[in-house]
Amino acid sequence: MKTIKVLGSGCAKCNKTAETIERISKELNVEVGVIKEADPQVMMEYGVMSTPAVVVDGKLVHSGSIPHRSDIEQWLASD
Predict the structure, then answer these.
(1) Is a pLDDT exceeding 80 seen at residue 79?
(2) CATH entry 1.10.3230.20 includes domain 2-77
(3) Domain limits of the chain?
(4) Which of 16, 29, 32, 71 is deepest in the core (most CB within 10 A)?
């Protein structure tokens, strides 16, 4: 199972990002754990300057906007 963290303050874009990842993972039948993380210290640890940001299995893969579906599908498909 992949662990995906959505880093952000809980704004609409951050919530939309988490919801979109969960929806697409269900469509593709990929088991993921989506965690919403609003702690500024955690964001600093990843060097995030703009949100929403996405961390997949401990690696920062996206920041600053809601990710495109194709990006999410790629994250879910990679090992």
Answers:
(1) no
(2) no
(3) 2-77
(4) 32
